[in-house]
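Sequence and structure are kept together here, with a separate record for every protein. A complete record is shown below as an example:
=====
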Amino acid sequence: MTAPVFVVDPTVALRPGTVTLDGPEGRHAVSVRRLRVGEEVVLTDGAGTGAHGTVEAVHGKDRLDVAVSGVRTEDEPRPRITVVQALPKGDRGEVSVETMTETGVDAIVPWQAARCITQWKGERGAKSLVKWRATAREAGKQSRRLRFPEIAEAMTSKEVAALLAGADFAAVLHEEGSEPLATAALPGAGSIVLVVGPEGGVSPDELALFADAGAAPYRLGRTVLRTSTAGTAACALLLGRTGRWS
């Protein structure tokens, strides 16, 4: 089994030598995972840098020292894959973020689509965004990633259109798309942006707005996926087709 991943504070320098892990992550390592001296761990800043080492000493219930033997930095993956995710009902938003993170998405944009039942307004919106970001962080650790996906502020349809206009390949996942995503011409580098609509579907006005921005409708397959699973399926398809899973 691969070594567990823990996130260090951005101010901590990851370098060969002794690095201390404390705070909530240190408590999780000592009191929950019950790591002991000699066990392997990976420390990361979540931005692409990881330090591999072994537990050197355990202090109390929430701190340990790691003897770092090597540090590596991952380049940003190419092409970069961003999923614009319409807000699902209930906890399906966190499910979507979790599975897309485990699959390998690079960025997720919450989208307040016209037909979304869920509304991110005021304090509720702020709390929901915190949950999505915490979910991405934990899923990134669980899947042994060194670079966690970015979770943007929620966007309006006009803001999403601007994002699509700047992509090297942009698509709206739609059951009535004339072309399958599996055969679309994809860039070898740059950025790919996919739009996943709400359970009620992308409205005609939104489809027109996104088409003007260069995003055509594409279908995934013969079945209709829920909004909380479509992004994960599409990411897996693109990661295979672009060679990122090779």
